[in-house]
Amino acid sequence: TNRDKMKSDGLGASGHASSTNRNVANKTSKHEDVKAKDGKKTVSKLNKDLKPEIGTQFEVGTKGKLINNKLSYEVAAFRTKFTDKMTTVSVTNPNNSATLYTYVINGGDQIHKGVEASITYELVKKENAFFTSIAPFANTTYADYTYDNFKFSRTYNNNANQNTYDFSGRSVLGTPKWVANMGVDFNTRLGIYGNV
Question: Residue 151: its pLDDT value, please?
Answer without folding.
Answer: 78
